[in-house]
UniProtKB/TrEMBL annotation:
Domain Amidase: 1-41
N-terminal signal peptide: none
PANTHER family: AMIDASE 1
Alphabetical list of InterPro entries matching this protein: Amidase_dom, AS_sf
Protein name: Amidase domain-containing protein
SUPFAM superfamilies reported in the protein's UniProt record: Amidase signature (AS) enzymes (SSF75304)
Lineage: Eukaryota, Viridiplantae, Streptophyta, Embryophyta, Tracheophyta
Superkingdom of source: Eukaryota
Length: 41
């Protein structure tokens, strides 16, 4: 998931970009939510 920017922030430091998909683009079945309103997979 990318709730806290765990994909986007490190990517930005490397000069590339991280992708955060829209909600419900990928199923979050069996994912333990950290912040359900912000979580995306």
């Amino acid at each position: 998931t990318d709730t806290g920017g765990s994909v986007r922030v490190p990517a930005a430091f490397c000069g590339i970009f991280g992708f955060r998909p829209s909600h419900s683009t990928v199923s979050s079945t069996n994912v333990i939510p950290m912040a359900q309103s912000f979580d995306t997979v």
